Amino acid sequence: MSEERSRAEERSLEARLEEIAQRVRVCTHCDLWRTRTHAVPGEGNPRAEVMFIGEAPGYHEDRQGRPFVGAAGQYLNELLQRAGLRREEVYITNVVKCRPPGNRDPLPDEIAACAPYLDEQLGVIRPRVIVTLGRYSMSRWFPNEKISRVHGQARRVGDYVVVPMYHPAAALHQPALKELVEKDFEKLGEIITQVRAETATTADDQPEEKPQQMRLF
Ligand code: URA
Ligand code: SF4
Q: The domain that contains 61 carries what CATH number?
């Protein structure tokens, strides 16, 4: 692909994401719009290989209209480093785009009302790897799993490799989880390296073929 063409494509992906974000900012599809200051559509690289999906905006995210900017966000930045990722190269969003009052858990009808936006974002970005942060984003792909059983394990779901992680906020509040989560992010770095190697192999040698077996998943 020529450089010019890939730049044009990137602009169009960005424009499509911005068009979704504009609808999110004025959305009234569930009651969370009544108490929000700002909706938080998500941010990051339109061509991200890795997409992180949290639960819902908290106080600081609602104030700023940006995901993961409070304490959990600072910690997420550290965890990204452990995985060898820069924040600018990934895409970060949430299952629910508006803050639930008092940071209560999102309700099933709120998650359902907001799901089409996440679907659209996934359709534009088409990441190779999806990292779920906490149980609400995990249950979108693994509705019956327990995070204590599957955390840090990569699984293929259709075209994606999905890696469920403990929520960084949970790890911040429970020292016992901290070590687990930090190890999981180091392993995420290895998983990403493997996914990249797989892409390179399929692109160079066997355009139609996908390797059947991988070491980590
Ligand atoms: N926790 C989340 O799940 N998402 C955010 O954006 C911030 C904190
Ligand atoms: Fe709309 Fe989602 Fe906000 Fe509900 S949480 S008002 S569905 S953007």
A: 3.40.470.10
89-108 pLDDT per residue, tens: 999 999 999 999 999 999 99
The DSSP output letter for 34 is G
Ligand closest to the CA atom of residue 62: 1
Measured by CA distance, the residue closest to atom 2 of ligand 2 is 114
Q: Which of 143, 150, 100, 95 is nearest to 122 (CA)?
A: 95
pLDDT greater than 90 at residue 55:
yes
Residue to mutate (ligand 1; options 55, 60, 63; most atoms within 8 A of CB)? 55
Segment 24-54, tens digit of pLDDT: 999 999 999 999 999 999 999 999 999 999 9
- As a whole number of angstroms, the distance between CA 31 and CA 17 comes to 23
Residue 150 lies in a domain: yes
Q: What is the pLDDT of residue 211?
A: 46
Question: Is 211 contained in some domain?
Answer: no
pLDDT for the residue 1: 55
Q: How far is the CA of 68 from the centre of ligand 1 (A)?
A: 5
pTM listed for this prediction:
0.92
Is residue 10 a part of any domain in this protein?
A: yes
Distance CA 183, CA 56 (A): 24
